[in-house]
Structures are given as structure tokens and as C-alpha cells.
Design a protein that fits this description.
The chain is of the alpha/beta class. The protein has 3 domains: about 170 residues, FAD/NAD(P)-binding domain (3-Layer(bba) Sandwich); about 130 residues, FAD/NAD(P)-binding domain; about 120 residues, Enolase-like, domain 1. The strands form 5 sheets. Strands 1, 2, 3, 4, 5, 6 and 17 form a 7-stranded mixed β-sheet that branches. It has a 5-stranded parallel β-sheet with strand order 8-15-9-10-11. α3 links the parallel β9 and β10.
Length: about 450
């Protein structure tokens, strides 16, 4: 029986990052990565395989990312914690000194009548399946997307570019409501509606209709929407069966319970990515945030802590970004609603200016930054930015401010660097000016109260 210093189960974002960092941090060379597929998808690129990319093959992570680790194609079906072995479906057993579980998640399958009909599809991270999905979309007309989260809206946007008639059905009052403030939600909805996408909110799919394949969906309010294909984008379920069967503790959100060092209840076994429990940076309670960026961060922490605790996970804040209908938007930390639910007294600051300076520079667009602070401590709680593609990095700046607990005064005095081609003018730099606006709003509210 072969044995390895480190065995990693799962080879998507979390598994690959764990392998990379174990090699860098400890110089490990005896690493075995076990995954079901030889090729693995770039998770965030899945909605783009049909439209922008045009092929599944253009959304594959390069094998070179594994470095000197050995890749084994197979399915791990059980863990013997006492013997420190994993068993594969073909009966082979492999020993480990340390084990990292990066088993990810699968799309949620809602209990909707007709969900198993032909031309009902999910965002499975499987190359063959997604290739079939792209081919199926090519040959049909009307599409219903169930779920107005990032995956749902990105699929809707990509499919409408190819001339399909798209309807998005979302149960909440707004699309993206779980992670974005209402102003961003409305901006995304209006942008998509402007391209002809039909957005239905505060409603759900009651049934999927047709004989053997999809012909229409019936909504909770009784309306019927004609369609030839349905794409489900309502969320994911962590893959925890392997861990649960091995006796590892499962957390409140249905993910593998881990400590601040990414260790499971077995100190020789770590869990990272969608399968691992996440804990809020703000109050330490479990949160259902599952992103590739979070997975890679957790994998770095797990790899550093394989032999002794070194790096601590200070909690998950959630950093999100997307582009729909050529409208880019990004959000980090708490929404206003969530912050108030947690007991914060929220004060907001906003600033808008051209993304380049002067505003007459080519491709300069208005960019707005909105920051939310706790009035009592002055610390930043969250923030968002839209509507140019540079917001993807602006929101990372906001995230850094959050984890470093910067106050509105510190952000207002932030030592920014600017350039006409790259940023707004230093006179109207949105990040610092939004904080200054928050300070102004605090002072104004204090005057009104007195």
C-alpha cells in the first residue's frame, strides 16, 4: 500500500491551492491529489463557456498548477481515521500522514415537480456535462433561469447575448439580495431589463411542465412562462458525506466543522473550500459563503498549519463581484440590512467621480463607491462599488480596510496613488471621499440631534 506525507481529496480551487502552498511553505514533495476528473473547471468561469469563451476547453485549470504533486484520478469513498488511510471506489487503499478534504459542493436540486425533465440543467462542475449543456442551449429558444444570484444572472446575461429570450425567476424581492445592498440589486436588474431580459422577483417556480422535456414553468402566483430549457442557479450543497461517514463533526450550515486553523475534529485532517464551515469575521457565527476566493485563502491557512498552528483564519467577510449587461459591481462585508441585524448603528458615505482623470480621457466612466461604518466605533463594516470594471480591485481595497478594522478617519486620510489612465483624480478619489462623506454625515446628524 502506498503512503504519502499529504493526501488531498479534491482538485479544484481549494485542493490545488493546498498543494501549491504545502510545497511552498514546507517544501513538501510527497503530495498526492485525488480527484474524480482529470480536468477541472475554473469555477467562476462556468457561466461563460457558452457565450464569451465559446467552449468548455477554454475554462480548464492548467495541470501545471499542481507543481510537483502527483495527480491520481479516482473517487475516495471512505476514510479510516485510525489506520490513516483512504479507500478508493476501485478498492485501492492509500495511507496519509496529513489529509486535506477539498470535496467542494454540488448544485442544489430544488423539490420542484418536473425537475428531472429533459432540458433542465444545473451548474455542475463537470466538463462533459457542461459541454452537453452548451450544446443544448445552442439548439433552443426560450430559457428560464431559476435563481437571481451571481450564477443565475451571469448565465442569463451570457445566453441573451446569443439571442435567446431569457426569464429570470427569483423568490426574494430583488436579485442578488443575499449579498448586495438594494441599490446594487436594482442597478443589476435594470441593466439586464434594458437588454430585454425578463426579471420576475418575489415569486418562485411551482412546477416545470412538459411531457418528457421542458415546455413551460408555472410560477407560485399561477402565471405560466413558456420555455424550452431551464437552468437552475439557486445555490449549492456542501459535499460532506465522506467526512460525515468518517465521524467528523458537521457544522450548523451543513459543512465540515473546522477550527481557526482549518482543522476538523481530527487534528490530522483539514477541510477547505465549499465543504468547510465558514465563520463570520464580524461575530464568529457560521455563514453560508462559498466562493473560490474563500477556498484558496482557507487552503493557504490549512497548508501553513499542517504540522503546527501558524496561520489563523480571522473569519470570512465575503467579497463578491460580477458583470451583467456591461455593468460591473462589487460588494464586500456586511450589507446595511445585515449590519443593523447584528446591532450596528450604520452610517453611510458615498462618492462618485470619473474612473479616469480628467473625465474626458478615453473610456472614462462614472464610478461610485459606497461605504458603511459603525457610528459608535467608526470602523468600516462593508462597502460596494460600481459601475466600471476596475471595481473588482476597488472592492479588494475595501475588504482590506474591513479586515484591518480601519475607521472612517483612517480611510479618509488613506495615502492613495493616482494616474490619469488608471484612477480618478486625487481631488475626488472615491474610496477616500466616501469616508470623508461619512464623517460629514456623522457631524450633520449630531447637529440635528442637538
Amino acid at each position: 500500500m502506498e503512503r504519502h506525507e499529504l493526501v488531498i481529496v479534491g482538485g479544484s480551487a481549494g485542493g490545488i491551492q493546498a498543494s501549491i502552498c504545502a510545497q511552498r511553505h514546507h517544501g513538501l514533495k510527497d503530495i498526492l491529489v485525488i480527484r474524480i476528473e482529470e480536468k477541472t473547471m475554473v469555477p467562476c468561469g462556468i457561466p461563460y463557456i457558452y457565450g464569451t469563451l465559446g467552449a468548455v476547453e477554454k475554462n480548464i485549470m492548467p495541470a501545471s498548477l499542481l507543481g510537483e504533486a502527483t495527480l491520481k484520478i479516482g473517487e475516495v469513498v471512505s476514510i479510516d481515521r485510525k489506520a490513516k488511510t483512504v479507500s478508493l471506489k476501485d478498492g485501492e487503499k492509500i495511507g496519509y500522514d496529513k489529509l486535506v478534504l477539498a470535496t467542494g459542493s454540488d448544485p442544489m436540486k430544488p423539490p420542484i415537480p418536473g425537475i428531472d425533465k429533459k432540458n433542465v440543467w444545473f451548474a455542475w462542475k463537470n466538463t462533459d456535462y457542461l459541454g452537453d449543456l452548451a450544446q443544448a442551449i445552442e439548439n433552443i429558444g426560450d430559457i428560464v433561469v431559476i435563481g437571481g444570484g451571481f450564477i443565475g444572472l451571469e448565465f442569463a446575461d451570457e445566453c441573451r447575448k446569443k439571442g435567446h429570450k431569457i426569464t429570470v425567476v427569483e423568490m426574494l424581492e430583488h436579485c442578488l439580495q443575499q449579498v448586495c445592498n438594494s441599490d446594487l440589486c436594482i442597478r443589476a436588474e435594470e441593466a439586464l431589463k434594458g437588454t430585454g431580459v425578463n426579471i420576475i422577483t418575489s415569486n418562485g417556480v411551482k412546477s416545470i411542465n412538459g411531457k418528457s422535456k421542458v415546455e413551460s414553468v408555472t410560477l407560485q402566483n399561477g402565471d405560466t412562462v413558456k420555455c424550452d430549457l431551464v437552468i437552475n442557479g439557486i445555490g449549492v450543497i456542501p459535499n460532506v458525506k465522506l467526512a460525515k461517514d468518517a465521524g467528523l463533526e458537521i457544522g450548523p450550515t451543513g459543512s465540515i466543522k473546522v477550527d481557526e486553523f482549518q482543522r476538523t475534529t481530527d487534528t490530522n485532517i483539514f477541510a477547505v473550500g465549499d465543504c468547510a464551515e465558514k465563520y463570520s469575521f464580524f461575530n464568529g457565527l457560521p455563514v453560508p459563503i462559498r466562493l473560490a476566493s474563500v477556498a484558496t485563502r482557507e487552503a493557504k491557512i490549512a497548508a501553513a498549519n499542517l504540522y503546527q498552528p501558524q496561520w489563523r483564519n480571522i473569519g470570512t467577510i465575503g467579497v463578491f463581484s460580477t458583470v451583467v449587461a456591461n455593468t460591473a459591481m462589487a460588494m464586500a462585508g456586511l450589507t446595511d440590512t445585515k449590519a443593523r441585524e447584528l446591532g450596528y448603528d450604520v452610517i453611510v458615505g458615498e462618492a462618485q467621480a470619473a474612473s479616469k482623470h480628467p473625465g474626458t480621457m478615453p473610456d472614462a466612466h462614472p464610478m461610485k463607491v459606497r461605504l458603511a461604518f459603525d457610528r459608535r466605533s467608526g470602523k468600516i463594516l462593508g462597502g460596494c462599488a460600481c459601475c466600471t470594471q476596475s471595481v473588482g480591485e476597488v472592492v479588494n481595497l475595501i475588504a482590506s480596510a474591513i479586515v484591518n478594522e480601519m475607521t472612517m478617519e483612517q480611510i479618509a486620510m488613506f495615502p492613495m496613488g493616482t494616474h490619469p489612465w488608471l484612477t480618478a483624480s486625487p481631488l475626488v478619489y472615491q474610496f477616500t471621499d466616501a469616508a470623508s462623506n461619512a464623517i460629514h454625515n456623522v457631524k450633520n446628524s449630531a447637529r440635528v440631534q442637538t
